Amino acid sequence: MPSFDIMSEVDQPSLRNAVDVANTKIAGRHDFKGTSAKLELGDKLITMFGDTDFQLDQMKTILLPEMTKKKVDVRCLDYGDVQKISGNKVKQEVKVRVGVDQDLAKKVVKLLKDSKMKVQAAIQGDVVRVSGAKRDVLQDAIALVKKDITDFPLQFGNFRD
């Protein structure tokens, strides 16, 4: 039976490159001179450090276009709360969401079942596997999911005949 996987992945080298370029731009800007403004990339986590909330917002306006240029979908970012750290400094953690979480996977499975298409959807870890009798039905399923799920970046891959 033909099948495909619905997944959500981020190209790590492109993300690292975008953060590095944004850090270079931040270091070169005059309004950031002499401040503690910087971005740090961890495993699936970007930490923004600054002196004020306004600086964090300015850092976002530098980072997001760089991510877009490197073809990293900005919908994968999950912004945390702004936290006060030593002195008058602030930081904000931004999680990079990778994989389809359980709630979204259940929503995709329910969407496909309610559509009355002749496909079966199964949650396998952080991937949703969709299988059907014909390729055309699977292509219709991809179109339906693309149309209804717009708030999270999804990729469709591992297509098998």
TrEMBL record:
Keyword entries, A-Z: Nucleotide-binding
Q: What is this protein called?
A: Nucleotide-binding protein U5817_05510
Q: What does this protein do?
A: Nucleotide-binding protein.
InterPro entries per the record?
A: UPF0234-like_C, UPF0234_N, YajQ-like_sf, YajQ/Smlt4090-like
Source organism (scientific name): Aromatoleum evansii
Instruction: Report any Pfam family annotated for this entry.
Output: YajQ
Instruction: State the similarity comment.
Output: Belongs to the YajQ family.
